[in-house]
Design brief:
single chain, alpha/beta, D-tyrosyl-trna(Tyr) Deacylase, Chain: A, two-stranded antiparallel sheet, 3 helices, 23% helix
């Protein structure tokens, strides 16, 4: 499981050019799921995401988490995060999970986040055409891979 986390002042996702979902201050999470991912990856990744200390404290030091600031979360599935560019110039998505494997893990990620947060957890729609609009705060962008816990 791989995520790109962006600290934002506000963000929205437009789904199939018709439905718009919005958050205020918080995190945008682009979530890539691969075939080898399990519920254990989901639990580890949600915990890491919600507790990542990337928001400023009273001294403007990144020492507070999304939970600490009572921020909101926007999660969008993105299979292209699993791209392999090892050979040639055309990315391979062979590691990306099939819909049958990815959708339950994506829904689990959302359910666990909603269970642990009091603020809004907003999502895109799995497999839909989406456009994300955000105001990156910092900018602060973090990439995390559950298979490479560095």
């Amino acid at each position: 499981m791989r995520v790109v986390i962006q600290r934002v002042r506000k963000a929205s996702v437009l789904i199939n050019a018709t439905e718009k979902r919005v958050i205020s201050q918080g995190l945008v999470v682009l979530l890539g799921i691969e075939m080898s991912d399990t519920e254990e990856d989901v639990l580890w990744m949600v915990n890491k995401t919600l507790n990542l200390r990337i928001f400023g404290d009273e001294n403007d030091v990144m020492n507070r988490s999304l939970l600490d600031i009572e921020g909101e979360l926007l999660v969008v599935s993105q299979f292209t995060l699993m791209a392999s560019t090892k050979k040639g110039n055309r990315p391979s998505y062979i590691r990306a999970a099939t819909h049958e494997h990815a959708i339950p893990l994506y829904e689990s990620f959302l359910a666990v986040a909603r269970e642990r947060m009091e603020q809004a957890v907003v999502s895109g729609t799995f497999g839909a055409a989406m456009q994300i609009d955000l105001v990156n705060d910092g900018p602060v962008t973090i990439v995390i891979d559950s298979k490479n816990k560095e």
